[in-house]
Amino acid sequence: MLEDLTIKDFALIDSVSIEFPRGFTVLSGETGAGKSILIGALSFLLGGKSDAQMIRSPSHEASVTGTFLLAGIGGEKGGTNDVPKTDAASGEEEAVTAEAWLFAHGIESDDGRVLVRRTLRDSGKSSAWIQSTPVTRADLASFSALLVDIHGQHDHQSLMRVPQHRVFLDARAGITEDVHRFTALYAELVEKRKLLDELNASSEERERKIEMYSFAVNEINEAKLKADEDASLSEEEGRLSSYEKLASDIDAITNMLSDNETSAVSILKQVRRDASHALEMDKTLSDLDARVESAFYEVSDIAEEFSAYKDKLVFDPARLAEVQERLSLIYNLKKKYASSPSAPLSEVLDYAAEAEANLERLGAGTTDKAALEKDAAETERRVYMAAKALSEKRKVAGEAMSKEVESVLAKLGMKGTRFSVRVEEKPGSGAVQKCGPYGMDNVEFLISANPGSPLLPLAQIASGGELSRVMLALKTIFAETDPVETLVFDEIDTGIGGEVAVSVGSHLKNLAKNRQILCITHLASIAVYADNQIKIEKGVADGKTSSRCRSVRGDERVKEIARMLSGENSNESLEHARSMLERFGKIG
Fold first, then answer.
1. How far apart are CA 209 and CA 206, in angstroms?
2. Does 65 have pLDDT greater than 60?
3. Do 505 and 526 contact (CB within 8 A), yes or no?
4. What gap in Å lies between CA 487 and CA 512, rounded to an integer?
């Protein structure tokens, strides 16, 4: 959940720091006070697009910082360190928690808390950090999508990503673990089919591969490479090829240290003798005398070691040629078996290991082809049956979910709206082609917001108010399975009022039992349900307009609700506001 937000020099906001408690928080204020700017700043923090015009004049930089408490670490819900997995072919993805994302990217939280910061310079360049680790905007958006959903705009909406629809439906159907087991079985089938394809390749092609892999393994093994050998050889080559300069420098060093009467050792020897005489006359010089003696022994030892190094230093052209020949061999091996000649030597060794594994698979007589075909056929049958079972459960759960969503939408002022979970089998023939890592189904949520209109993909809903209410209905249905902790609803009150607004407020309050809810609203009948209320105000100081935020409680909240009811603080509106707060929410 979002614990606090600090905004500096963003649009009309000079400097604002807000704390967000758990539960349902309403953001209210006069039209144009800056409520949308606050959500815009949060969207920017979460990886949204940036524009230098967002920076408050005359500043040169805007910054937004937020602290998040993660579920499963410092929060209440259990987490996992599973690394997120995405199937490249299908684009489908498995659910992942914020904790798992951090684990996969080598970032540690601070007792379950994570600091996210993003800045924007007037040059248009933005920078972002998670904890103290710099991240790209894409990484920031990927991580923050696991923390916050903003509804009313098309950013940060996990339910707008079609691959996630299958994940949500599986969670709703209670088959997530079944899908994990299916994925493992499917991977087993793919591996067996791959091996069969290799075995079924033409004899010439197979022999060509065996010859190619054998040559590579023999060539690399004959080289008897050692880990990081190229680095140590390069260092030795530099030393051997620079013999003359190195010998000259060592001569100069030994000469200055000990080889003449004006050398460092000779001078220190005289200093030591004089310091000893001075000590006899003044005992307070004992520390300095000891330091002089220590310096004398240290420099003498250094001089001896340099002298010994000089005695061993010889020019060895034979060794230089040997090193250069070895480096040339390693260079050629990298050109053939690594990604580039400058790649780590480990890539060559990895290629050899992979080639040996391929040889083992292709080796004549090592694999019983008939037995493998029988085994693959049985695995394919199991995959198809398991995929069929998953598909049936998805269809049943999809029908039930459609009715649930329509029922909730009717209460939210969208009576007559049709919602459908489309579960269609993937095209293709055979278990491998027809199925993917998560089954044989393509899953997508469809909706018709107006009677008589065709069902369309969820992403094609145009109205921000309608979209927010659809998201509210879906979030209500997925309350127990959706990992996102903080939901932000903007424009949710567009085109509604009366009993519908009361129903929306009630739904938000109920959803806030398991989630942190932030909601911008102009309607008092929604605001009174909130556990907390933050008022956004716009004012002028020193000739500059700025927005500020503050929590309102007690009589201040009563006055704000009264303003939302009638635009004034008359006795009647104040009494009505107090009555509504006592009935539906709390005064504070």
1. 5
2. yes
3. yes
4. 9
Mean predicted confidence (pLDDT) in 102-116:
92
SS3 annotation, 397-465: HHHHHHHHHHHHHHHCCCCCCEEEEEEEECCCCHHHHHCECCECEEEEEEEECCCCCCCEEHHHCCCHH
| Strand duo 544-551 + 532-541: pairing | antiparallel
Q: Work out whether the CA dihedral 477, 482, 486, 490 comes out positive or negative.
A: negative
Span 113-154, pLDDT tens digits? 999 999 999 998 999 999 999 999 999 999 998 899 887 644
Per-residue pLDDT tens for 551-587?
A: 999 999 999 999 998 877 788 889 999 999 988 876 6
Both tokens of 244, joined, read: 């003359």
Tokens 């995929």 correspond to 387
Cβ(51)–Cβ(15) below 8 Å: no
DSSP 481: T
- What number is the average pLDDT over the span 329-336? 92
Interior/surface letters 186-224, b for 16+ CB within 10 angstroms, e for the rest: beebeebbebbeeeeeeeeeeeebeeebeebbebbeebe
Give the three-class secondary structure for 58: coil
Q: Lowest-confidence range among 185-189, 481-485, 524-528, 529-533?
A: 481-485
pLDDT digits (tens, 9 = 90+) for 430-471: 656 678 899 999 999 999 988 888 999 887 775 666 777 787
- Residue 530 CA to residue 24 CA, distance in Å, equals 5
CA distance linking residue 132 with residue 144, whole number of Å: 16
The sheet with strand 13-19 has its strands ordered as 133-135, 126-130, 113-121, 61-69, 2-10, 13-19, 544-551, 532-541, 24-28, 516-520, 486-489, 148-151
Tell me which residue of 325, 332, 330, 343 sits closest to 230, measured CA to CA. Answer: 330
> CA-CA distance, 317 to 164, in Å (whole number)?
66
Task: From 85, 57, 63, 54, select the one nearest 8 (Cα to Cα).
Answer: 63
Taking Cα atoms as reference points, which of 129, 140, 159, 127 lies closest to residue 62?
A: 127
Residue 390 · residue 179 · CB < 8 Å: yes
How far is residue 297's CA from residue 184's CA, in Å, rounded to a whole number?
68
Rounded-to-10 torsion of CA 381, 382, 388, 393:
170
Pairing mode of beta strands 486-489, 516-520: parallel
CB proximity list for 228: less than 8 A, separation 6 or greater: 345
Q: Which SS3 state, helix, strand or coil, does residue 298 take?
A: helix
- Go through the chain and tell me how many residues it has: 588
CA 153, CA 514: separation in Å to the nearest integer?
23
